[in-house]
Design a protein that fits this description.
Its EC number is 4.2.1.91. It is found in: Plastid, Chloroplast stroma. Residues 24-199 form the Prephenate dehydratase domain. Keywords: Amino-acid biosynthesis, Aromatic amino acid biosynthesis, Chloroplast, Lyase, Phenylalanine biosynthesis, Plastid, Transit peptide. The chain has three domains: 15-103 and 191-197, Periplasmic binding protein-like II (D-Maltodextrin-Binding Protein, domain 2), CATH 3.40.190; 106-181, Periplasmic binding protein-like II (D-Maltodextrin-Binding Protein, domain 2, 3-Layer(aba) Sandwich), CATH 3.40.190.10; 202-304, ACT domain (Alpha-Beta Plaits, 2-Layer Sandwich), CATH 3.30.70. The chain is an alpha+beta fold. The protein is built from ten helices and 17 strands. It is globular. The structure holds prephenic acid. The site of prephenic acid has 15 residues, from helix 2, strand 3, helix 5 and helix 7.
Amino acid sequence: MFMNCRTLSLSDLSSSLSDDASVRVAYKGAPGSFSEAAALKAYPLCEAVPCDEFEAAFRAVELWLVNKAVLPIESSVGGSVHRNYDLLLRHRLHIVGEVQMAVHHCLLGLPGVQIEEIKRVLSHPQAITQCEIELNKLSVVKESVEDTAAAAQFVASNDLRDTGAIASARAATLYGLNILAENIEDESDNITRFLILAREPVIPGTDRPFKTSIVFTLEEGPGVLFKALAVFALRDISLTKIESRPQRKRPLRVVGNSGNGSAKYFDYLFYIDFEASMAEQRAQNALGHLQEFAPFLRVLGCYPMDTYL
Ligand SMILES: O=C(O)C(=O)C[C@]1(C(=O)O)C=C[C@@H](O)C=C1
């Protein structure tokens, strides 16, 4: 009678949880945005929940309105999304995964409009940066809006014949626009990396490649950043990202008080991603070592690396 019953393993349970259609995932933007696509890449059956701001997505997770948030953190062309670095520190969520996604932009216009009629182009600032060469060839006025899908929605709902939107092919379908040009990104490898945030951390493993993200401060002194980076180099741990942000609460550091007065330096927070799991002794040792001279250190998350594109 029980011949066909298969014993459940832990991996069955974890995959059924992550693919569960009841998972609600917040993203910033309108339906058809690249962030929505990233949320669906991470959780194909999820209910993707649009938010008007990054902070709203953080709050939605904190208030249990959604299970996760998927937010952009860096673009291979446009660089870091600084706002999300600052919000990671201000909020207490954990990074539980990452999604790397190839971003292909289209120029969209109203049905019947020819590309020569387009005098103005709307899009997200990162998308405008990623398509700069093509846009300069068209010699159009560029205008920033909240996200790529919002640009498409605006052109469609206001019936703007002289205005185009840089957005996804899916946004064209959703808002009834035509694709006037495809793959208009300057670099064929146009990748955006998104972070997956949750209330609870994932348990670090060693069964597949893991990455750890941390933030720390340093005291004044010669070579302190060099020493901080050496704790990883000494243990053969590769760094994949380093970012510095101003310390808003303590923006200036006063150094020395000689006859010439005291110097005031900007004070920074350092964000580092490194390729090791917190389940590994070498990662624990590296952070123990860093703690010896970092007055503040927080692990933002230890999560499986996205090795697919
Ligand atoms: O505007 C969108 O569609 C977004 O999802 C935002 C965003 C970004 O913030 O970088 C995401 C991916 C692309 O790099 C362009 C824009």
